[in-house]
Amino acid sequence: MTYKWSISEQKISAALVTLLTEKEFEQLTIQDITETAGVSRATFYNHFSNKENMVEVISAKLLDDISVILIPDRKLGEPVISQALAYIKEHYSLVYSLIDHFPDIELTLKTFISDTILHSDIDLKQKVRNYYEMQEKFAIEIYITTIYSLIITWIKTGAKESPAEMAKTIKHPINQHR
């Protein structure tokens, strides 16, 4: 079960997406956010300490939700990856806005992907050793960076491919050498 976003959090997240199409983040005020969201300043401050914290908390909640989706399959099979990508697609406007306006989010996403893969039950060392003819540490980095690049490209180009199609693309190299 993913995190249950409160109505206020949903409204504030939607307001952030809307406002980022009109202004740069630095120009946004708490008043802009609360007026667009239709919530009080007190409600905003019940959830976030400031607008930078809002971005951090929203990003963390999205990644927490994706973690919850991935947990049941520690081998990260296509079905669970497809579910995680479906979640991203369901929250596409928010995810795209975060990635588009906050460069640090991309690094956070790459770290999340790396940690997820490295702490999974995939025998990654054996898989990459069979696929890439180079030192293991470089092969693992190439594999993780490839997955990250596929996901970022998918998001930045409108997430047009289905989550199932993307899951198959992501799993392709690792599945070639079972």
TrEMBL record:
DNA-binding region ranges: 29-48
UniProt key word ATP-binding: no
PROSITE patterns on file: HTH_TETR_2
HTH tetR-type domain mapped to chain residues: 6-66
Gene3D superfamilies in the cross-refs: Tetracycline Repressor, domain 2
Domain of life, source organism: Bacteria
Keywords of the record: DNA-binding
InterPro entries per the UniProt record, alphabetical: Homeodomain-like_sf, HTH-type_Tx_Regulator, HTH_TetR, TetR_C_Firmicutes
Protein name: AcrR family transcriptional regulator
Organism: Streptococcus saliviloxodontae
